Amino acid sequence: MNTNDPAVSVVVPVRNEAGNIAPLVAEIAKALEGQWPFEVVYVNDGSTDGTDAELKRLGAELPWLRRVRHTQSCGQSCAVRTGVGVARAPLVVTLDGDGQNDPSFVPAMVRMLEADATLGLIAGQRTGRKSGGFKKWQSRIANAVRSAVLRDGTRDTGCGLKAFRRDLFLKLPYFDGLHRFLPALVRREGYGIGYVDVVDRPRGAGVSNYGLWDRLWVGILDLAGVWWLIRRKKRIPELAED
User: Fold this and answer.
1) How many domains does the chain have?
2) Angstrom distance (rounded) from CA 224 to CA 201
3) pTM, entire model
């Protein structure tokens, strides 16, 4: 495999997930090896546990494993943006670093992008959620409100398992919380969305590092901002030749 010219980049944002890294890396390799040249980009978002040491250890053994590090935690959207920015492949897959996203669904998502140039994003849609009752209730409410306001046709934007075109992603307006509004913003650019039902798994080691209440009020403001962006989208004029 030519790791200098990957066809697929897998971006994994992590914060204090040392115990989940090795099992997830092995699963990603199993899903992709022999199908595409690939790389895995871990973005260490200001971890204070053994995450960096574990990534260094594995990186010394695996030439396709890359790591970048934020000196302090900047949030999941920022970590994803950093990873996509340094990714070398035209197609990017993101998944959460806690083990809840199953990499075995990645090949089907990549093939959907390859087969249809009109699709800009393949979004995982979780089934059998393993989160607690309150978190699932909050997610349902948030998804219902977002869908009603933005009409993005997506029932679950919170799933970390997504595949998209790198150049398209980097054209999107960036803000903290971007990953939860990707379907609406991709549609804004004129691309279609594909969907894959994915099995939600229990978290591996550790506990969740990105809270719920700290996103609530910011999410409401983000929703208003994305609604405004969609309404203000202007058609790019095509020049006619005489």
Assistant:
1) 1
2) 32
3) 0.80
